[in-house]
Amino acid sequence: MTQTLIPEPAPALDEPPAAARRRSPLTDLGTPLLYVVSLSTALVLAGLLVALVGRSPWDAAGAMYDGSLRDGAALGQSIDQAAPLLLVAIGSVIAARAGIFNIGQEGQLLVGGAVGAAIALFTPGPGPLVLILALLGAAVGGALWAGVAAVLFYWRGVAVVISTLLLIFVANQAVSYAVNSPSLLREKAVAGQVTTSQTDMLREAVWLPRIGEYPNFNLGAGIFVALALTLATSLVLVRSRLGFRVRMLGLNPKAAHRAGVGAVLIGGGALLASGAFAGLAGGVMLTGSGHRMQDGFADNVGFDGLLVALVARDKPLLAVPVALFFGALRAGGGFLSATGVPRYIVAVVTALMVLATVFPAAYAEMRRRRTVGAA
Predict the structure, then answer these.
(1) 286-298 pLDDT, tens per residue?
(2) pTM score, two decimals?
């Protein structure tokens, strides 16, 4: 009797190897344990740095807490600091999703703030209307400054990273000249007083409204503008045809070109939008807290906002808690001077926190690539 041999079914061609199917527990965001270890290490190093300058780490931690979370006023200050950071971060996310790395937010914020100040100071009319025009003008100013980098990239092939970085120095000099020139933005001379390198104070009708009063919980309306734009950006990137085109261009420019996605239109538009958000952040800072332009107006908000986007891994909604965290660091840093700790320590602590939050995700990505490579 002949025995019939039944061949074993061939494995599916599209089935990944077993080693590639095994997912590391550190994939994507990583394990909570790794985050705890990373953040704890950063805090220990920050404490050692404070001790090296001859101060108590506990006093420094208490000062940071007092300035950022202790009461309603401190919490409101942290939220106010987070608003422009969130706006800059959302603009950075838009550019990154299109495959463009814009690092010139500091200059775009400065130019936006200067344009907003010029509109707020020299435009007559009711306060609410001038406020809206100033914010829109700030966004347009930031977009136009980013547009210089877009033109250089798509016309002459100049890398966006280089052009946006160098344009920061140009913006610094241009805005400094404007606030030092009596014919431009420098404050008006008053008999018996010496003018300084700053603009006149904006009239109170052009200030962003505030909710609550000091010393109770109070915050500016800028955070609501930032949150509304964050939600709108997230919906556009995920749910709209435009967002799909932006993501396609960022993931595969060649496939996007073959599908009819214009790199100049979509990529250049994303860079302009990134600059507009940074410029709007400058307008929010101007009308929400500073109320005048002066040298050092940006105060590294552009760079910190870019860090917020990097830590949030280009996810708009995730940028909200990250911006609040960075805002608390900035608000609490102002209280460190009471303990005698140098202000630059805050920048070092911020850098340590950034490394601590980025390291688990980077480690998970390295493990994933090793696993795929072994497979």
Answers:
(1) 999 888 998 889 8
(2) 0.85
